[in-house]
Amino acid sequence: MGLEWLALALTAAVLNGFSVLAAKPSADRLGPWVMWLGAILTEGIAFGVAGLLAPRGPGTADAGLVLAAVAAGILGAVGYLSFFAGMRLGSVGLVGTISAAAPVLTVVLSVLFLQETLGALQILGIAMTVACVLLLTAEPGRGRVPRRLAVVLSLGSFLVWGLWAFLVKASVGALGEGDLFLLLASGYLGVSVVAAIRWRKEAAPRDPPSRPTWAAGLFVFLSGSIAAIVLAAAYDAGPAALVAPVTGTYPVVATLGAWAILRERPDWRIAAALVLFVIGISLLSIA
């Protein structure tokens, strides 16, 4: 097995990490509805353009796989709403990390339904990358209602994004990247119509967002869109049971970014998570 999937998965993880880092201030100032519309509209357009440029499949996929690809687009769009709503109530570490646990669901579904198999060292690597994500979920502030609601919303993103990745992996082989991207785009853009209708009903903010806020939001939209395309390509290049855990480590990038850029005080969890990350990635690269 080549390691092209690993390079693509790591790229998606880095892009998602910086996107999550910028999502907190953007969601606080722009609101979840604006962020939702911007994210899914940008991602839908990006998938559409990529679909026109990417190689097409043999054209023999059955209707079930076509519906699965469209459903993946819809689920991916819905996941953004719960993510941005949760980000307004919780921290980057809490919301970003719980959402990033989605690969756990993807791996389970892939092993059960796609007949993927794993070696003992790769299973250990997956366990370490998942432990890396879970380690960062511990956060002070027990019993607060906003935090509990943020957890619930984050779990919503966890469920739909985990299923998104599974459906992408299940359909990309038969459809080809080009057709898959176009079908994903139809799902994202279809939901964006609903998001636009909902956004028009929002009252204008009393204090209009500044240019840096809009710039941060645009960065979230663009980096998230590129990461989604790279991630779909990673699923085409490698098994979902390996790709998913690697891409799910993006909270490490977000946490380090919060330390370096936002000057948040680091703690022992960061060092421990990074050790697990490096060892886990090394084990996952073993064919």
Description:
This protein is mainly α. It has one domain (4-284). The chain is built from eleven helices and no strands. The chain has helices at 4-30, 32-53, 63-89, 92-100, 102-113, 120-135, 145-200, 211-237, 240-247, 250-260, 268-284. Helix 1 runs antiparallel to helix 8 (211-237), helix 1 (4-30) packs across helix 9 (240-247) and helix 6 packs parallel to helix 9. The mean pLDDT is 85.
Please tag this protein with its features:
287 residues; mainly alpha; globular
In short:
The protein has helices at residues 4-30, 32-53, 63-89, 92-100, 102-113, 120-135, 145-200, 211-237, 240-247, 250-260, 268-284. The protein is mostly helical.
Structural class: mainly alpha
Order of helices and strands: HHHHHHHHHHH
General shape: globular
Largest pleated sheet? none
Count of individual beta strands: 0
Radius of gyration: 18 Å
- What is the straight-line distance between the termini? 6 Å
* DSSP helix fraction: over 70%
Please mark out the parts with pLDDT under 50 across 5 or more consecutive residues, or reply none: none
Q: How many discrete domains?
A: 1
Strand content: under 5%
Number of helices: 11
Q: Give the averaged pLDDT, no decimals.
A: 85
